[in-house]
C-alpha cells in the first residue's frame, strides 16, 4: 500500500470519529471519504472533504433561473438540461478536496488545469521519499508515427528490458546523489531547494487539490479520455469512480453529453444535412480541412 503508517493511522482516526452535521451529505461519497485509492505503483487518490450533492446543483439552478426551469419535471431532468445547455454555474456549487500522490511529470501535466486550489509537498522544506514511478513492461511504447504527443507500438524484448533498467538505475543513482548532497555529515550539505534539481521527473510528489464540480468535469473530460496519457488517465479514472457515487445524476449527464457526446461545427452540421438529403459529400466538397474531415469520419463514417 503506498500510504505511510502515519497516513494510515490518520485515516483510521478520522473514520473512527464521525461527527454529526446538518449539512447535506452524499451517502455514496461518504463511503470514499478518507480512503486511499491506489494508482500506479506508489500513487493514490483520496477524498479529504467535499461540499454539496445533486440537490445542491438543482437548488442553485432554481435560484438562478426561477420560472425558466419549471417545464423540467424532475431534478435529474433539470440537471440534464443544465448540462445539455452548458449552464455551468450550478455545478460550481459542489466542491471536492483530494489528496493525490503522483509522479512529478504527471503533476506538471495536471497543474495546467488552472481552475483549482493546490498545495504541494515542499521539497524546499522536506526530503522527498525514494519512490519512483517505473512503468510496467506493457506500458513502454515507441513514439507514435501519427501523433507527436502520443505513443505507438509497445516496446519488446531486449529494448524494453534495457529501457526499464535505465529508468531504475538512473532514478536510484540520482537519489543517491541527492541524499549525499543534502547530508551534513562531514560537510556543510547542499540546501534542499538546490539539491532537488537533480531528482528525476518520475519521483513522487503529493498535493491537496480542491476544485468545483464544473471544472472537475472539464478535467475529467480531457484526462479520462482514451487519448489522454495513460499515467494521468488512471488518476482521472479513479476520480470518476468517486464522482459517480458522489453526484450520480450529474455524472450520468456528464457521461452522456460530454464523454459520450460529440460537438459539431457549423460545417459538420451542414455535411450531415447534405448526407441525409442523399448527397455524396467528400472532403473536397465539405469545406473542411483534412484534419477536420478525418475526425468527422471517425465519428460518422
From TrEMBL:
It is an enzyme of class 2 (transferase). InterPro entries: Thymidylate_synthase_ThyX, Thymidylate_synthase_ThyX_sf. The keyword Transferase applies. Binds 4 FAD per tetramer. Each FAD binding site is formed by three monomers. CDD domains: ThyX. It comes from the Bacteria. The keyword Zinc-finger does not apply. Its cofactor is FAD. SUPFAM superfamilies: Thymidylate synthase-complementing protein Thy1. The active site is at residue 223. GO terms for biological process: dTMP biosynthetic process; dTTP biosynthetic process; methylation. It catalyses: dUMP + (6R)-5,10-methylene-5,6,7,8-tetrahydrofolate + NADPH + H(+) = dTMP + (6S)-5,6,7,8-tetrahydrofolate + NADP(+). FAD binds at residues 89, 112-114, 120, 212-214, 218. NCBIfam families: thyX. Belongs to the thymidylate synthase ThyX family. Homotetramer. This is Flavin-dependent thymidylate synthase. It comes from Gymnodinialimonas phycosphaerae. The lineage of its organism: Bacteria, Pseudomonadati, Pseudomonadota, Alphaproteobacteria, Rhodobacterales.
